[in-house]
Amino acid sequence: MQLPVAPGTLVHNDFNPRNLAVREGRNIANSDWRRGHRLALREFLMTRLALYAAGNTQREFAFLPQVVATAFRLWGIEETRDGG
Questions:
Q1: pTM of the entire structure?
Q2: Taking residues 8-37, what's their average pLDDT?
Q3: Cα separation of 61 and 35, whole Å?
Q4: Please, what sign has the CA dihedral across residues 51, 54, 59, 60?
């Protein structure tokens, strides 16, 4: 529910001042960026990854084990940061 109302942002996991674009003079707080990352990761886990898993039942996706491992490793990192 929260993700569709958040401003659309391209994220490539490099939170660095030179990679920030500020719109209409609004500063982006680290907590806002972190929250957006968590929401996007959760959305990926619940939608895209579920579709990959469903497709994998019909035809093996060789990339899937690594994608699953990486996605859940990232989720684990997010859960341990700031108390989850």
A1: 0.61
A2: 66
A3: 30
A4: positive
